[in-house]
Fold these 2 entries.
Entry 1:
Amino acid sequence: MKFLITTTEVYRFSAEDEATAFIEKAKQEPGYTLTKSTVEYKERKQKGEVIDFW
């Protein structure tokens, strides 16, 4: 018999408030336990200009 012990999921949101709302909803979700969550802002630059952010 085998059991899944841990899994890591990574999501990308365009706004910080969307990410925070998703984390709060996941904390209330029955069936699994959210043990760690982080919100990071990242940028992709090309020639000094920001071409993408998340």
Entry 2:
Amino acid sequence: MREKIKCYLQNQHKFSSSDADKILYGLEGLLSECSKLLFLLMISLPFGYFDEVIVLTFVLLSIRSYCGGLHFSHYFSCFVFTCTFYAVIIRLSLLPLSQVGMALGLLFSLAVFSLIGPITSPMRPRLQDAQVKKYSQRVIILLTIYSALIISLETLPYRTIIYWVIVLQIFQLLCAKIARKGEHYEKVF
């Protein structure tokens, strides 16, 4: 099926082989992510966590798009990790947290990200210095905005969901950095 679509893109729309591969890669990624989200939404609805999954997804995508993190090479392992990640965040959001504890967790997350920056998938090219700077600035701005909202608005709906998305996203980013230490794309050439 993939080859038929690639031939169609090349023959009918005159894309190069490389461009057709890029389009197919993007479509595969989109279908993969949409199927995971659809499944998560179907599971969350009967349990009463539909809104939480929507908020969690929005916040996670806004941060993860620029900072990256752990990546899995197979759909099933990625799917299991994503489901576990969502379930842990929802479960942790039910625990009471003090204002000081949240502020310290957010400050620590911001500091960790400032030190390690974005982590790309090993299947993608290493980011150039200008890209690292641009993406880091965007994440720091987003983390600062989310942190300010969490700290200043104690009645913010889904406040603890947003908090745990930030903390666990930065934690898994740190895990990705540790796991990839020494791989060839981490080395400066």
